[in-house]
Design a protein that fits this description.
Number of strands: 10
Radius of gyration: 18 Å
Shape: globular
Strand order of the largest sheet: 6-7-8-3-9-10
Structural class: alpha/beta
Bound molecules: adenosine-5'-diphosphate
Protein name: ABC transporter ATP-binding protein
Keywords: ATP-binding, Nucleotide-binding, Transport
Distance between the termini: 36 Å
GO molecular function: ATP binding
């Protein structure tokens, strides 16, 4: 797989849903460096998922712009953005084998059969699931299914991988295991990762930098050490200090 990261620039992005008193995302600006592991951290309802889904193209922007390597992606449909996406629920095709699930995005892009087989092998290797290629998703544990979802999301070498609480449905042991897998994938791929979580321990463990969300705004952006040692607001100090 290639080792190339792409930069993402979010400029003054706001999202107003009809009927809400305040914007779900309120004038957010953030620059994510090529190859960076960026985490959106904050309590439920703070706008993390809305921000991620605007990057993915699932939700439209009310105002502002989002650029990848300087190109404004706001007008592009999700499948034209070349971004990998993984959600809390794995959303694998239940009737397709693991290998076929991973092959699917490559077939959609019209890749030749022999090239697909090599790419699928490489992706299975990346998530250590070589032995599971012919199994159906229901024959795998939750953690394994999520690893398949990760493999499928990066197999076509997207410009970045976006993950929304990908460990949220797993028990503690599997969560710790998959956290290590995701950290290793990030090191090996050198890809830009954006990770959404409400769990500060997860954020502090995985991230190069963390953007702390509160009521649709970013309270502070910094490395785990910067946030922990120099929280800019009481909210950041309290949120990072909480244990859950
Ligand atoms: P988080 O991911 O931090 O939990 P969300 O981005 O899901 O937060 O939600 C931010 C706010 O936007 C919340 O008040 C939520 O209820 C609202 N919201 C999210 N999606 C929609 C939608 N499709 N329609 C209306 N309101 C929404």
């Amino acid at each position: 797989m290639n080792k190339s990261g792409h930069g993402i620039t979010i400029s003054s992005v706001t999202k107003v849903f009809g009927g809400l008193q305040r914007p779900a995302v309120d004038n957010v600006s953030l620059t994510i460096a090529p190859g960076e592991f960026m985490t959106f951290l904050g309590p439920s309802g703070s706008g993390k998922t809305t921000m991620l889904s605007m990057i993915a193209g699932i939700t439209s922007l009310t105002t502002g712009s989002i650029c990848v390597d300087g190109q404004d992606i706001s007008p592009l449909k999700p499948h034209k953005r070349n971004l990998g996406v993984v959600f809390q629920q794995y959303a694998l095709f239940p009737h397709m084998s693991v290998a076929k699930n991973i092959a699917y995005p490559l077939q959609q892009r019209g890749m030749a059969k022999k090239d697909i087989a090599a790419k699928v092998d490489e992706a299975l290797e990346l998530v250590h699931l070589r032995d599971c290629a012919d199994r159906l998703p229901r024959q795998l544990s939750g953690g394994q299914q999520q690893r398949v979802a990760l493999a499928r999301a990066v197999v076509y070498q997207p410009r970045a991988l976006l993950m929304d609480e990908p460990l949220g449905a797993l028990d503690k042991r599997l969560r710790d295991q998959l956290q290590r897998e995701i950290a290793r994938m990030h090191r090996e791929l050198g890809m830009t990762f954006i990770f959404v979580t409400h769990d500060q321990h997860e954020a502090l463990t995985l991230s190069d930098r963390i953007a702390v969300f509160n009521e649709g705004r970013i309270e502070q952006v910094g490395t785990p050490a910067e946030l922990y040692e120099h929280p800019a607001t009481l909210f950041v100090a309290q949120f990072l200090g909480e244990s859950n």
